[in-house]
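User: Assemble these into one structure.

Assistant: Restating your components, then the assembled model:
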Amino acid sequence: MSIVLRKPTKFSRFAFYSVAKFSSEKAKKQQKFTFCTQGVAKENNSQDQKPQLSSEEATTAAALQQITTSYSNKGYALDVTERTVLGRPIYLDAQSTTPVDPRVLDAMLPYYVSQYGNPHSRTHAYGWATEEAVEKSRANVAALIGADAKEIIFTSGATESNNAAIKGVANFYKERKRHIITTQTEHKCVLDSCRHLQQNGFEVTYLPVNKEGLVSLEDVKNAIRPDTVLVSVMMVNNEIGVIQPVEEIGKICRERKVFFHTDAAQAVGKIPLDVEKMHIDLMSISGHKIYGPKGIGALYVRRKPRVRLEPIINGGGQERGLRSGTLPAPLVVGMGAACEVCMEEMERDYQHVSQLSERLIRQIRSSIPHVVLNGSEVHRYPGNVNFSFAYVEGESLLMALKKVAVSSGSACTSASLEPSYVLRALGVDEDMAHTSIRFGLGRFTTAKEVDFTVELAKRHVARLRDMSPLWEMVQEGIDLKSIQWTQEH
Amino acid sequence: MSRSEVLRLYRKMLKYSSMFSDYNFREYSLARVKESFRQNKLLQDEEAILKAVEKAQKNLQMLQRQAQISQMFKGERLVIEAETPSRNK
C-alpha cells in the first residue's frame, strides 16, 4: 500500500517536469501525456480511501498502472480506451461458451485421427470400437446426473434438446392434453418452441418471476390444469445465474402427474444435481458449456415412469428412434470426457468460481457506486455475475471494455439493442436493464483477470459518468424521476 | 515407488504444464498439478499411492501431447500478459 501512496506525488512531479521540458512542437502529444498521468494520479488518490483492497489486489492495480505509464513514456500515450495495449482480450463470458478443456480434446483426437468408424456399423471392428466409446460416454453423462445410460439421448445441443423435449411431449400427448407451463425468463429456444406450439393450438402459461428472478411454487401449483401435459422450468438462468427451486417444482409435478422438463445447460457439471432426487422427467444438457466441444448436447428422457416423445427428426432410428442420424463419435466422446472431468472437478471448480465471484462482487461494490447485482443474492450460481451500472449506457461500457470479453446478457440476443427480456421480467427498470453486464467466471478464470476487469470497469464507468449529464444531475441531488423530459403539447 | 521417482514425475508435469501457450490453461494446469500432489502427499496406503501415480502418469502423457498441440496453434497473448516494452528500444 505504501508504494501506491507514494506514487501520486512522483507522477505529478514527473508530469510537471515533462511539461516544462518538452518544446512547443510536441505540445499536442504532451498534453495527452499529462492528461494520462493526471488520471493515474487521481485514481491513486481515490484508492487511498479504499483500504479494504488486499495487498495482492493493490499489486495488480500497481502493475496495471506501470503498464499504463511505461507505454506513455514510449511516446504513444495510452489514451483512456487502452487502444495501445497489445494482446487479445481476457475471456469472461463462460455462460455463452467455454474453452475446450485439454483433457477433453485429448480424448477426442483419436476419433478424428484413426478411429473413424460409424458407431452404428455392426459388421466390422471400426464400428465396434467407436460404438464402445460412445456407450462409455453415455455412461459418463448419465453418471453425472444420476441417471441410467439408457435414458441419455445425444443431440446437437441444448437448443435441439429443448425443442425435442417440449415439442416431442406436446405432440405425443396432444389428443388428450394441450396445456404447457413455462416461465418468462426461459431461454429463447424454450419460449420459441412454446410459441410455435401455441400457433398449433396449444395453450401456454408463462409464469412470472419475482424481483429476485425466482418462480413461486404457488404459481406453479395454481397453473396446473387437468389438461396440463408439461412444465418446463430452467435450472440455472443463463443471464442472471438464478437457481430455480427445481426439486420442489419436480415434486409438485410428480404429485399432479405432469411431466417436468428442465433446461440444465447452465447447471450440469457446475452444481450437483440428481434426476431421481429432483423428480426430473426430461433434462437438456449442452456440451460446450461444460468445457466440451460445440455441436453436441444430450437429452435425458426418463424410462420409469416412461416419458414418450414424438421425434422431431426421423430417419434411421438411431438413439431409440428419438433422434435419428449418425452420432458424431468424436463429439460424443468429447462430451463424455467433459462430463467425466466435471464430475471429478466439480467441488474444486465450484470453490474456485465462488472465490473469484466473491472477489469480483466485493471489489466492484467497493470501488464503483450505484451498482446493482441483478437476480437473487442467495439462490444463484456464483459463476454468473450480472451487474447493472446506473447512469452508464450499457453499449458504451461494453465497447469501452474492449479488453474484456463480456456480454450484456445472452449471446443469442446480444445483437439487438433491446434491453434483456429476462431483466424486464424481474421488474428491473428499463434504464437499469440497458446498463447490465454479465461477467462469466469459469474453471480457467484467474484472480488476476478479475482484478484487471475491476480496474478497467472502475476507470470506464467513472469516465462515462463524467460525460453524462444525468450523472451530473444526480450529483446535484436532482431526482431523475421527477424530471419532465418532453414538453406537453 | 520411491520419493525421488514421484518428485521426478511432479517436476515433469510442471514442466509440460508451463509449456501451454494459452495463459488460462497454463495457470490452471500448474495450479492443479501442485494441488493434487500436495493433496496426495499424505497418502499412506501403498495401493492408493500406486493408483495416484498411475493416474498422474496418464495425465503426464496428456500434458505432453496437449502442450505440444498448444505450441503448434499459438494464439495472440492475452492483454494481461502484455510485456512492458523496455525504454531503451
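Residues 110-341 of chain A form a domain with the Aspartate Aminotransferase; domain 2 fold (CATH 3.40.640.10).
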